[in-house]
């Protein structure tokens, strides 16, 4: 073997050893479980029994926890990511649905669906330290990457509320489309899905100006790539992902996935998009670069994973 080939072999082995393994944590509302899925091995590694009606999820890598909202028993499960087991159940009452972590991951924010409240929970003590009233039926929730804002979509009020992360005081309330649900933030752009308008709203978080782009039928979740070249939207009623060119402000492609795709998350380290499919009890894996469907993995019943659900090992 030549020196050049030896160097190339060592480089290949080093890159392979350093590759990051994507693991998806999928909430299955229909059978009260969380599927731990190895995306590259294409299999469920473990099925974790959860509380009743698991819906939302957020992952804190700093704390090495996944937090799961259980809408049907008013609880939050804390999953230890190192051992894939529940180590704590936080009883909060009400109907917890949306959930997200703070930028520094020292808190999680939980939306109480019917009581129209947000709970602030410390991630070390698992204690609720604050509650605030928000708009009707808080749904999607996400924090920006600089620690400034918490964004909340209010489904039955057709608004997005922007709160200060530090004080939880209201900064701005913005009218969007009909029944806003899933949201995503990337740099200074906030993406909001409008379920009954078959569209997404894009809010500039510096100017608070808004524009609307058509998507597919009954959209639910949205993400964008790091460069904000494309937005990807799950369409629950036509079993597809809309690919939206953010330069031309138009849908340029639809990618067929499983039945009734709801949750969506993005893994740019491995160039993957992943959807959770309520109707086919599965997840779909998509090539982010080619924007093509790759394969499906069976999970649990009525998979949702509303939030950010990919962990990179």
Characterise this structure.
The protein is mainly beta and 313 residues long. It has a single domain (21-312), classed as Methylamine Dehydrogenase, Chain H (7 Propeller), CATH 2.130.10.10. 5% of the residues lie in helices and 56% in strands. The strands form seven sheets. A five-stranded mixed β-sheet has the order 7-6-5-4-28, with no helix packed on it. It starts with a helix and ends with a strand. The relative contact order is 0.14. Mean pLDDT is 94; it is low at 8-19.
Give the key terms.
globular; four-stranded antiparallel sheet; mainly beta; 29 strands; Methylamine Dehydrogenase, Chain H; 56% strand
Note the gap between the termini: 33 Å
The CATH class assignment is Mainly Beta
How much beta, percentage-wise?
over 45%
CATH superfamily: YVTN repeat-like/Quinoprotein amine dehydrogenase
Number of strands: 29
Task: Output the radius of gyration.
Answer: 19 Å
Instruction: Please give the share of residues in helix.
Output: under 10%
The CATH architecture can be given as 7 Propeller
SSE topology string: HEEEEEEEEEEEEEEEEEEEEEEEEEEEEE
Helix/strand class: mainly beta
Taking the sheet with the most strands, its summary is: 5 strands, mixed
Rough outline: globular
> What name is given to the CATH topology?
Methylamine Dehydrogenase, Chain H
Mean pLDDT: 94
- Which segments are poorly predicted (pLDDT under 50) over 5 or more consecutive residues? 8-19
User: Major sheet: order of its strands?
Assistant: 7-6-5-4-28
User: Total number of helical segments?
Assistant: 1
How many domains? 1
């Amino acid at each position: 073997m030549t020196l050049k080939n030896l160097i190339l072999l060592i480089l290949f082995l080093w890159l392979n050893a350093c590759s990051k393994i994507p693991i998806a944590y999928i909430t299955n509302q229909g059978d009260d479980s969380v599927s731990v899925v190895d995306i590259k091995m294409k299999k469920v590694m473990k099925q974790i029994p959860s509380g009743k009606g698991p819906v939302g999820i957020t992952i804190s890598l700093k704390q090495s926890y996944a937090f799961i909202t259980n809408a049907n028993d008013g609880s939050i499960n804390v999953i230890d990511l190192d051992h894939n087991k529940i180590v704590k159940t936080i009883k909060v009452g009400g109907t917890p649905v949306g959930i997200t972590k703070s930028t520094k991951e020292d808190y999680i924010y939980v939306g109480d669906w019917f009581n129209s409240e947000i709970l602030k929970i410390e991630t070390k003590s698992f204690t609720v330290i604050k509650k605030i009233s928000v708009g009707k039926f808080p749904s999607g929730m996400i924090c920006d990457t600089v620690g400034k804002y918490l964004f909340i979509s209010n489904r039955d009020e057709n608004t997005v509320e922007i709160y200060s992360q530090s004080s939880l005081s209201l900064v701005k309330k913005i009218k969007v489309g009909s029944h806003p649900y899933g949201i995503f933030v990337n740099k200074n752009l906030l993406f909001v899905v409008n379920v009954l308008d078959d569209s997404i709203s894009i809010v500039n978080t510096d100017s608070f100006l808004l524009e609307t782009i058509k998507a597919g039928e009954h959209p639910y979740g949205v993400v964008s790539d790091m460069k904000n070249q494309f937005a990807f939207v799950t369409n629950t009623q036509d079993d597809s992902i809309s690919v939206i060119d953010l330069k031309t402000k138009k849908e340029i492609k639809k990618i067929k996935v499983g039945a009734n795709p709801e949750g969506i998350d993005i893994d740019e380290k491995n160039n993957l998009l992943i959807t959770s499919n309520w109707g086919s009890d599965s997840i779909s894996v998509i090539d982010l670069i080619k924007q093509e469907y790759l394969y499906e993995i069976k999970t649990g019943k009525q998979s949702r994973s509303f939030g950010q659900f990919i962990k990179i090992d």
